[in-house]
Write a structure and sequence with these properties.
By secondary structure, the protein is α+β, with helices and mostly antiparallel strands. It contains 9 helices and 25 strands. The chain binds adenosine-5'-triphosphate and manganese (II) ion (MN) (2 copies).
């Protein structure tokens, strides 16, 4: 699932911002962003660039230099981040379709490559980057989650469903698998070689995952978030590292286990789940209300300290529906 960092959209709404004459707030799907007042009308087509888009140094994007210039490795560009302007949250950028120079686009089309836009990726320490044994195994799904802002068309239908909610931890995605006698360790995108300095493998050994997973007597993958020292600034103040699990995947059946089955398995193996916040959750009226509900203290906040959680992962019992709701408070604090 690749993110559409820049795509052709319809402007769903435009509203004034109290006390601001020159700017307005636009709604695009579940996103809100600040635009110049006279630049767009409701119903206009435009190119919407999501947060984390990294725009190239081209004349048409120079206006972003002051707010957004960033280096990504050797590459110069402009990184879009969550901002607050005149008290209004603003996420992403709207460009007039003329930026496509007459290209015959279709609604919804991903135009990031055409504009030279890529995803901003912060530098990854060597202990987490690792060395590839191979690409991510094709017999296990990756751990990506879609953002609720991109599912606004489905939101009303989702209101009929009951969900379980876990805290989204800010670490690094880890997948461990046992298949036909082979044990493997993967980061978000790679099957990893066991090397001396690799944190994923170190923790797999520390948690005795090779033996524990073999004891299941089944081809299985366990997926979780690696957190602790050296990872994302260790917001939870953990000593060393650990993994909190959020998925068990039955490889032969090509199916996720339910939350109760995952809970039972991790309990039996002496492993920990991500914090489970609710098991019978129904969606509030609007995406904006859900975004507010995502804000709050992490269940892993150290005693006496408020650590703003990254957000929530919301899933139906069968995992047919699954998405993330990132806290805007968390995003506003992002470096
Ligand atoms: P994006 O592609 O949207 O820029 P990303 O690829 O960095 O973001 P994340 O925003 O980190 O992905 O969201 C998906 C990740 O969330 C999963 O890969 C998983 O590692 C992590 N995660 C943390 N906590 C949970 C949880 N409770 N349930 C599911 N996934 C979780
Ligand atoms: Mn992703
Ligand atoms: Mn993450």
């Amino acid at each position: 699932m690749e993110r559409k960092l820049a795509s052709v959209v319809v402007i769903d709404d435009l509203q004034p911002i109290p006390g601001a004459d020159l700017i307005a707030v636009a709604t695009v799907k579940g996103w809100k962003l600040v635009v110049k007042k006279e630049e767009f009308r409701i119903g206009d087509l435009a190119v919407y660039c999501e947060i984390d888009a990294f725009l190239p140094e081209k004349p048409e994007f120079e206006f972003l230099r002051k707010s957004s210039f960033r280096k990504m490795g050797e590459q110069n560009g402009f990184r879009l981040k969550t901002m607050k302007l005149r008290g209004q949250i603003s996420q992403g950028l709207l460009l007039p379709v003329t930026v496509l120079n007459g290209y015959a686009y279709t609604l919804g089309e991903d135009v990031s490559a055409r504009l030279g836009i890529v995803k901003y990726e912060p530098p990854v320490p060597a202990s987490l980057a690792g060395m590839a044994k191979g690409s991510f195994p094709s017999f296990i799904p990756k751990t990506d989650e879609e953002r609720i802002q991109n599912l606004s068309a489905e939101y009303d239908a989702y209101k009929k469903e009951s969900f379980y909610v876990t805290e989204k931890l800010d670490g690094s995605s880890a997948t461990f698998y046992y298949r036909d006698g082979d044990f493997g360790v993967c980061s978000r995108n790679l099957d990893l070689l066991e090397t001396g300095n690799n944190t994923f493998w170190k923790i797999a050994r520390q948690l005795e995952l090779p033996a524990k997973m073999a004891s299941l007597g089944k081809n299985m993958a366990l997926q979780g978030e690696l957190i602790g020292e050296g990872i994302q600034g260790n917001p939870y103040g953990i000593k060393g590292q650990t993994v909190r699990f959020f998925n068990a995947f039955d490889i032969d059946a090509y199916a996720y286990l339910t939350l109760p089955a995952l809970r039972e398995m991790t309990g039996q193996l002496g492993l920990e789940l991500v914090p489970v916040l609710d098991t019978a959750f129904t969606l509030p009226d609007t995406v904006d209300q859900l975004l507010l509900a995502a804000e709050g203290a992490s269940a892993l906040s150290p005693a006496g300290k408020h650590v703003e959680r990254e957000g929530l992962v919301v899933r139906s019992a069968d995992k047919r529906i699954s998405f993330k709701v990132i806290s805007n408070k968390f995003l506003l604090n992002e470096k």
